[in-house]
Amino acid sequence: MSAVQHQALVLGAISFVAFVFFTYVALSSRRTKFGVFAACNLLFVTMVFGAVATFDLSDERTEVVVAIMTELPIVLIVAWVCLALAGGLPYLSGTLPVEPAVRRARLRTLLRSAPFVLLFFVGVAGVIGFVFPSPAIRVYAPAPIEFFVMKGLIMVPEGLYSGLAALVFVMAGRSSGLKRRLYFKNLAFSSGMAFIAMIAIESTIFAGVRVWVADQNRLAILKMLNTFETCLAISCIIVFALGLSLRYTPAVGGPLLQRLQTGWLHAQEQFESLEWQAVNAGAAQRLRDASDAVAMTCRLRNVSESDMEKALATIRLVAVMKDPSSETQHITPEAARKLYELQEEILGDDVLASKISWAAGVRSRASEPQTVKSAPLHDALRAALDLIDDHENDVPMGTRPLWYWIAAVSAADAKIIDPPVHASVQPGDYDGYRAAVDAYYAARISIQTSEDDD
Amino acid sequence: MKANALKRGFVSALRGEIVTLWHHFRDAISARSRVHGSRPLLTAADFQEELAILGLSGRRFVPKDYADALGDYLGISINIHVIPDNWYPELSRRLAISGRLGELCYSEQLTLAAIFVPGSLPPLVSTLTILHELGHLAAGDVLILPSEDVGGSHGLHAEETAFMTSPVRKGKKLARGSPFAEEALREREANMRASYALFAGCLGSDSPYADAMFSVL
Question: Between chain A and chain B, how many beta carbons pairs sit less than 8 Å apart?
Fold first, then answer.
């Protein structure tokens, strides 16, 4: 077996092992488009090295073709990584570029240019190799300067782009607040690209040694460089494999988030804004007096501010849902029920429910933010649906809070709804209801007295 | 000397002609790209890129932070005014009757933008309204040339993937693409920006889109 065949066998074996691993990655749940692409490239490289190890390729032009074919997959991988960093693979991979590239337009443009520049130089190198054939794959043989030019045209751009990619991965890994797993993932890919850059530098030096170093020293240096290259190749494959194995699953899934953005948020915003418009445009006039009485009743009974908000929201909802005008036609019990169910879905996810919040006062961080659970609309929706005789009610009457009864008494007094009834029992059977009635009429008298005084 | 003067005159005339020709060529190219431009609606991933440019990707933020970052990027001052109902009771009624929830005022000369929202808006609606108006600023909707503004929503089909954009006057905007020609689409995209911003601001580094910017392979 010649030195060429021996080296091809070693590199072919490494490529095959890497191909097996990447195929496993490509077929497993950890699949990424890069994993599939790398597996295909490694298969191709294995086949080329296999052919070199099996057949005697003595023709120099054939050697040039084989040399370029073994370099091409690495060039393609570097180009793919650069494009992925620049977010240039919209139909094949994720659409997002790496964060440092977004903030630096020139860096992004430079990364995007990788496939064109790299393939251009491979093409030029191919032309030079064909015009000036050289023993490209006979690793220890002396070579003419044209070989160095051909090799350099491929390796220098490859080294520069892989070095740049390594740097971008480092920049990404250094971002503040980055999760540990993502940090190590970027570190692994950065190391992988740095190894490719080092292989490119080493290959250029290797070509130079073949051209300029005399016979007696050349073999020893080339053997040493060959061993070094093999070590670099193995290290590169290991760190890429590690990077791909470090799969990160976000706490909140993209599809769920998309559903909430288009479903729940849109529904809740539309519901609340339509309600606000209806109330402020005067479509639900009966509401105004009732709201004042509810607020006064809550104060008399020392009901908390948040519960008072719920009572007020309930009476607003009931008034708007019962209003026949066209402005409120979209606020129906069906729409209310659908929104309530969407809210329940969010509340079923503890992580999400605790995170989705909005400032009660927009300009300040200090005020307590509202969440789906704490916002008055959630409980008010359920209460309003119950008050307008929603038959899906499953909350026992005895467990109703005081604010619910205050809203019920007020809505009935304002003739927005009929007095609340439920199954075979009367609301008057409940302490909460009786307390609400007493407080409500006391509040009405108080309001009346203050109006008379004015 | 006369020959030299003649030569200079010819050279300067030639240079002038070339410059004029170049300007015509550039205008023709840019006009063509502006008139016939089209793009799809904003995605959550596109919005995440905008946040990264503002330095807010992976961070929790409130509308005020977004407004400050956007103002710094655009080189304008953005003020948010939440008007209490007892200051100007007519504001809520007028906005409600007109079907609007807030108002954006923009002055290019003063490099100033002001957003007015009534204080009686429910907190979530108030937040989304402010983000919606900021979305118009980010998209560059305020830079649209008045004659190119296409009203109504004719030709608006959900199944379409790309919509016609409008030419804009010189000015800075955050969005990569030009604003849509149709007003309904601009409103729809401002709503989408508001919703993306709300979730991104709430989730911070837990946003899957923020994480995706550090896991590209």
Answer: 171
